[in-house]
Amino acid sequence: MMYPRLLVAKNLLHPEGMIYISIDDNEVFNLVKICEDIFGYEAVKVIVVKMSEASGLKMASVKKRGTIPKLKEYIIAIKPSGINNIEFTPIKKPVWDPAYNIYLDNFSREHRAFYDAIKDAQYLSDEQLKKLDEILSGITLRPLSEVYKGPASKKNAWLFDNSWRICQCVKSSSVYKLSEEKKKHRKTGDVFAVKSAQGRVYLVRGTYSETRRNPRLQLIFASDNLFVHPGDFWSHIKTTGLNHEGGVPYKNGKKPLKLVAELIGSLKSLNDGDIVLDFFAGSATTGEATMLVSKNNNIKLNYILIQLPEKLEDAYQSARADMKKPIKESMDYLNERGKPLNLTELGKQRMRISIEKYKTESQAEGFKVFKLDATHMKT
To answer: Would you say which domain of life the source belongs to (predicted)?
Structure first.
C-alpha cells in the first residue's frame, strides 16, 4: 500500500516540500529502504520519537513476561533535495549550566537590546560605538554567588529569568588578538568590545590574564545557549493524555498535536497557499495542526485529508479487550450527535471544533468533504 502512495506523493510534492511518515518498529526498516529506493539515500532521515512512558498497566505485563516495553516510534523525514532548510523548535535545557557564573551588574534590558541590535551589523556609526563604550564602561562583573541571596528552591528560576545578563568566559584566539591590539591604544574597564573584520562585535572581560597564551576572555551570554537542537531523538513532546485532544475521543494511533505541528512548521519555505496532504488522516490531527501552524506563522495553509472508510463497529469487534472501551467511547460520542459510526466522522467533527477554535487567527472558514469512487489505478 505504501509504495504506490509514495510514488503519487513524489509526483505531487513541491520541489522544496517534505514528507513525514510515522511508523513503528514492525515496518520501519522495510519502509526506510522503500523511501531510499524512491527518493535516494541522501533524501531520507529517521527521527526516533518517545511515544509512551515506562509505566502503567503494560509494565505489569512486561515484568510478568520478562519482555521489553515499546516506548518509541519513528518519523521518517523525506526531502528530495536533501535534508536541509528545515528548522525544529529548540528545546529549553532543564537545568542551569554552572559554567555561566558571571553577573553583569548595571546592565539593563535596554542595554542588552542595543547590543543585540548592533553585534552583527556590517557598519557601526561613531554614535553607536560611543554609546556601546558608555554602556560597557559602567558594567561591573560579579560572581553569581555574590548576587543571588534567595532560597535555593527558587534559584534555578531566577537564573533563567536573568540569563540575558549572565555570562561565562571562553577562550578565543581571534578575540584575544583583537583585544591585545585594542589594549595597546586605549584604557579598558571590566568589559569592553572588539570588532572583527567581518563586522561582528564581541564582548571581552577586561581583567583577563595577559600572561597566559590563550586566556579565557570572551563573554558568552547564557540566554544565547539556553536551548538545544532536538536532534534525531525526541523525548520532549508529551505523548500521554491524548485520548480527548482535539475535542473528540479517539485513542488508536492518535499523534500529539504538538508533534504534527512541529513537523509541518519545520519547513523554512512555507508560504501562503501551501498544501499539507495527509494520506492517513485518522482523527484529523493534521488538519488542526495545519490551522495551528497557520496561526503561529501568520500564514494561510491549506490541507487535504484522506481516510479510508473505517467502520468503528468492525474495529470494536476485532479489537483487543483493552482497546474496546476507547472505541466504544468514540462510538457513543458519534451516536450522541447522530453521526455514522466511522472514523471519518470523528475527523470531520474535530475539524468543526478546530475551525471554531482557530478561525480568527488562522482565517479558517470551513472544509469540503468528497467521497471518492473506486480507483482506476492498477498496482
So the answer is: Bacteria
Q: How far apart are CA 10 and CA 305, in angstroms?
A: 17
Q: What is the pTM of this model?
A: 0.77
Average pLDDT, stretch 308-336?
Answer: 89
69: nearest Cα among 25, 31, 29: 25
Residue ranges per structural domain of the chain: 1-90+229-236, 92-227, 271-379
Q: Measuring CA to CA, which residue among 327, 317, 284 is closest to residue 303?
A: 284
* Cα 257 to Cα 21: distance, rounded to the nearest angstrom: 15
Residue 87, φ and ψ in degrees, nearest 5: -150, 115
* Of 86, 64, 65, the residue nearest 20 (C-alpha): 86
> What is the predicted pLDDT for the residue at 147?
95
Contact (Cβ atoms closer than 8 angstroms) between residue 360 and residue 288: no
Q: How far apart are CA 225 and CA 205, in angstroms?
A: 19
Among 240, 251, 358, 375, smallest CA distance to 306 is for 375
Grid cell 529506493 — which residue? 37
Q: How far apart are CA 43 and CA 37, in angstroms?
A: 10
The residue type at 218: Q
